[in-house]
Each structure stands twice: as C-alpha cells, then as structure tokens.
Structure to design on (601 residues):
C-alpha cells in the first residue's frame, strides 16, 4: 500500500491536461468544479469547509471539524484572510485554501508538514511530497544537493537540508506559503517567531495550555521512555485517556537510568496499560540496512529504522490508532547558547553568570567563548567558512556553539574529491542565498535545530503510517513552539537546571521525582552491539553502491573506516545518513516510473 499524500491543482482549464485518472484517489473540487485536492488520506486526516466560492482544507492532525471550517470560510474574502484562519487552529496540518480561483498552500512553521511545487506544461502544481512532483516531471536527481547530503550528513542545516533532491522541484520554506493567482506562483511569509518577552512562570502556563490542546481522546498510545519529554505527554494524555497504552524499549546499557524513572511513572499511571519490549525481542540497531525506503528524501535515522517499524506494527496490533512521542523536546526546551549574544548586550552581569555556567559544564575555553560572543559574524560568513574548511579534520567537541550554525560541516574520508568539490559549490551558493531564521543568533539557533529535526521526524511519521498508526509529535506543533519561543531564552536556558520551562509547565501533572531528573539515557551499548551484528550487511549494501557509481563515494575508504578497531563514534554517526543516502538513491533511480496513481490504495 502506498503512503498517504496529496497534490494541489490550480483552478485553470489547463490543469485538466495534467490530471490522470488516479484510481481510488479522493478528490475535492474548486467552486468551479475543477479538481483542487487529489490524494489519499485517512478520513480523520482531512476536513473541508465551504462558504460560497471559498474552500478551506485542513489535512493532518487537528480537532477542527468541517462545520467549524465552514464558519471560518465564511469570514474569508481573500487569501490574505487565510492567515487568521491558520492562527485560530491547533494541531499539525497542511492548510489549503481556494478563494475565487486563487489558491494558497502552507505547511507548518517547523517543517514537519512540507510544501513542494513545480510547473508542468505551464501549469503550477503543489504537493506534500517532493517525489510525487518528481514522478510527474520524470525528474532526475540533483547531484549537487545529493553530494552535500553525502558530504555533510545529518549536520547539514537549513536551508540546504530542506532543498529537494530532485531537479525542477522547488520547496516552500517552513513558515512561508505558496500562493497562486491567475496561474502565477509566489512564495510569501506567513509566520515568524514571536518575540521572547514572557517570564518563565507566565510562559510555563502558556506551554501547559498549548500542550493540553494537542492531546485527544481515542485509541491512543504514547512513548514512556522515562525522559521528561515523553513522560510529560503520557501524563497529559492520561487525563483524557485514563486507560492509555504506554510503550517503551528496554535498554541494553546498564548505566541507563531511564528504566528507573519510567518505573516511577508507571506506578503513578495505575489505570494505564504498559507495554515494555525486552531487548531480545527488538531488532538490532542497524538491522535490515538494505530494506527499500520511501523515495521522498533520504532518511538519516537508519540505525533505528527497523526498531521503529517493529514498534509501529506492535502498536497497530494492540489497536493503537494514534501514537504520541516526545521527539522535538530536546530541541525545543534546551536552547543553544546563541542567546548569550543578546543577553550580553542587554544584561551583561546575567550573561557573564550564564557564560561561566556553560563553560564549566561543557569545558569551553573562556577566551574562545568571549571571542565568539564579541564577533558573531554573519549567516553568509558561516556558510562560506564551512565550504572553505569542508575537508579539514573534525575539531574539538568542546568548541563553543555560539554562531549561526550548530556543528561544523566536515566531509568524512570516504567522500570522493569530486563529491567534496560539488558539495563545496553548493555551500558557497547557499552562502549567497541563506537568510537568518530569527532576529538574533539565539532565535536563529532555536529555529535551526527545530527545522533540522523536523526534516527527519517527518519521515519517521511515514514509518508509522505504513503500519496504519498516526505519529503525533506535539513538540513540533506551531502553537506549542510559539508558546515556548515567547519565553525569555535565558530564563529557560539555565545550564544549571534541566529543561526548567517544561518542568514548570508540568508541575502538578508529572511526579516531582521525574521533574527533578537531571540525567539523560545512554544507548552506547545498543549501538555497539547493533553495529557488530550488522557490519557485514552494511558493507554488503555498498558493494554495488549507487553513490559510488555517481562518483560520490569511495567504497574502499568506507570499508576501512567501518572495520577499524579504533572506530570513532563520529564515524558511526556519519554512517547513519550515508546509509540513508544510498538507500534513497536506489529508490529514486529505480527504472519503473511511480507516477501519481501511486496515491491509490
């Protein structure tokens, strides 16, 4: 069964020329009767409201009903009014509108829901997946973007990691919308981060209210790892669903104290059902490295893919229709220290206290830290620096993260010279195009890590969808993100406390013993054992490498790095996205055209 997806067509006679008889696909029409939305989705995932020539569609996860959308549609007289509709809705969804033949399409501010577009035979077409448009265009792979993915791996940040890997397919940046008027396409901003002005106490109230809005009743399950993120969602969900099913993997690492904190939460959730999968029942880390994958874009979390599929299938067998997970909590509630730039200028005494705390915790050199704060540089300068130093050795992990990036981009030794040259060209080009994602380095870093993570968790949701389970990730919802970003960053970025904003938001809901946790689970044993068991299968995947055939990968250097007895953990981390690129390229290059009739069941 093909995954859900949809395309949006303009209200133009010429659009009929590109429409195929998509068997089984669902269709919603413009007021003119021409096709507007064509796709495949579960009934609960789409709501359409109409009022005269106005049509509004919400596709995804939102409690809004068709009746409510109809009421909102009655207040829309032009596409500019659609922004107010988006602000009035909660959840994670695409919003598509048609008003007197003009069309607006938007995803989410974090990029968990994406929008792609192209032109075919002069007609604009949009979709929620890049590969649907690539099929329509019979598009080839964009080798330069692929080279950047291979060279930089999971460290590649926005906007480059958000570029489609198919030629002639464009992406709408998260926070922007696509507008068609008389067949002309424009990309316009609809969202920007709110100003961080609220205190921790007031902000915690807003975060609690926003998170409560994301929890719905029904056949719900939820991760209960023992960490603060997933545990918070479990206790919120249990208020609406006392017989909640919680789910967790047992750990292989003896030093991992997740089990201890999970046990305390389980004792408090006495009406819930709890499912713990022992290690011997789980697929090993890095299992099935050659399994075919979705062709939308490379999936970087390949070491856990087999376990994620197993989890989704297990939950589906237990009757779960919707699964809550705390992914995104680390990115949202652990601000990077870029906020120190503004704090130093506005509250220097407070800033110096924070600098000392960060330096002590992360062993930052004081001189380098202060130099970075006094000379923040520019976004363009950061990208140029990455291009110039792409082939340099990876530096110290204790380097302060204070600028316009998160981690330096360094090519692994298995990337060929041609691959590095192509990647370097793309990095230089990005330097000429990239814009700050916020008003200062702190706000920029906040959006950078959220958008980077959303790009991969969007694909994780697809693995659950394969099993018939909707994966809900409340920490990526726009209203939740806004509630967090409104809080003054230095108040919830205290290096001496663990996620203080989330802890205060959950005070009285989650047991205090969990709110006071200051540790994080370690999964090194799982990774080492999984790599040992699957090393042969991983190397077999690259024996007839599609990446090597394109001149991007040196298989001999890859084998040497993987087989090295003194293997650096950073090699393992870089191996994950490399496997993702190899598997994606094989799927994208397959000779049989996949066409848009793949939307049919």
């Amino acid at each position: 069964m093909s995954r859900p997806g949809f395309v949006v067509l303009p209200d133009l006679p010429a659009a009929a020329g590109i429409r195929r008889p998509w068997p089984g696909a669902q269709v919603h029409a413009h007021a003119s009767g021409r096709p507007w939305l064509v796709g495949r989705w579960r009934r609960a995932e789409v709501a359409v409201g109409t009022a005269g020539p106005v049509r509004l569609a919400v596709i995804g996860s939102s409690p809004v009903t068709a009746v409510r959308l109809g009421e909102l549609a009655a207040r829309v007289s032009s596409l500019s009014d659609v922004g107010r509709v988006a602000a009035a809705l909660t959840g994670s969804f695409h919003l598509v509108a048609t008003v007197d033949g003009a069309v607006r399409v938007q995803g989410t501010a974090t990029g968990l829901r994406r929008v792609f577009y192209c032109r075919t035979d002069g007609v604009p077409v949009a979709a929620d997946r890049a590969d649907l448009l690539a099929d329509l265009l019979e598009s080839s792979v964009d080798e330069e973007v692929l080279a950047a993915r291979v060279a930089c791996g999971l460290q590649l940040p926005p906007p480059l990691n958000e570029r489609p890997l198919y030629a002639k397919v464009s992406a709408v940046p998260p926070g922007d919308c696509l507008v068609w008027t008389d067949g002309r396409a424009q990309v316009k901003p609809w969202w920007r981060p709110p100003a961080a002005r609220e205190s921790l106490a007031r902000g915690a109230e807003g975060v609690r209210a926003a998170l409560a809005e994301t929890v719905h009743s029904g056949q719900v399950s939820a991760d209960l790892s023992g960490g603060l993120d997933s545990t918070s969602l479990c206790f919120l969900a249990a208020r609406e669903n006392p017989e909640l099913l919680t789910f967790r993997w047992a750990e292989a690492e003896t030093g991992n104290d997740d089990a201890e904190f999970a046990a305390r939460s389980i004792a408090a959730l006495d009406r819930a059902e709890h499912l713990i999968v022992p290690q011997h029942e789980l697929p090993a880390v890095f299992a099935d490295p050659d399994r075919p994958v979705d062709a939308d874009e490379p999936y970087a979390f390949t070491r856990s893919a087999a376990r994620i599929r197993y989890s989704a299938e297990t939950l589906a067998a237990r009757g779960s229709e919707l699964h809550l997970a705390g992914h995104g909590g680390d990115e949202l509630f652990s601000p990077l220290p870029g906020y120190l730039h503004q704090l130093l200028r506005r509250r220097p005494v407070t800033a110096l206290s924070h600098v000392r705390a960060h330096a002590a915790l992360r062993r930052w050199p004081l001189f380098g830290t202060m130099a970075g704060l006094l000379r923040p540089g520019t976004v363009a300068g950061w990208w140029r620096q990455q291009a110039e130093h792409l082939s340099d050795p990876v530096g110290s992990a204790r380097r302060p993260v204070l600028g316009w990036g998160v981690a330096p981009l360094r090519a692994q030794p298995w990337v060929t010279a041609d691959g590095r040259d192509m990647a370097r060209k793309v990095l230089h080009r990005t330097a000429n195009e990239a814009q700050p994602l916020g008003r200062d380095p702190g706000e920029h870093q906040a959006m950078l890590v959220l958008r980077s993570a959303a790009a991969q968790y969007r694909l994780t949701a697809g693995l659950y969808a394969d099993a018939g389970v909707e994966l809900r990730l409340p920490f990526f919802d726009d209203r939740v993100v806004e509630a967090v970003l409104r809080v003054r960053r230095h108040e919830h970025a205290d290096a001496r406390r663990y996620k203080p904003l989330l802890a205060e938001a959950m005070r009285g809901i989650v047991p205090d013993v969990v709110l006071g946790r200051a540790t994080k689970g370690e999964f090194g044993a799982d990774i080492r054992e999984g790599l040992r068991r699957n090393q042969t299968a991983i190397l077999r995947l690259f024996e007839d490498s599609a990446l090597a055939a394109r001149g991007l990968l040196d298989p001999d250097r890859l084998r040497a790095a993987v087989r090295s007895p003194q293997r650096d953990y950073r090699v393992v981390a870089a191996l994950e996205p490399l496997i993702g690129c190899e598997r994606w390229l094989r799927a994208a290059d397959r000779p049989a055209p996949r066409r848009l009739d793949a939307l049919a069941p």
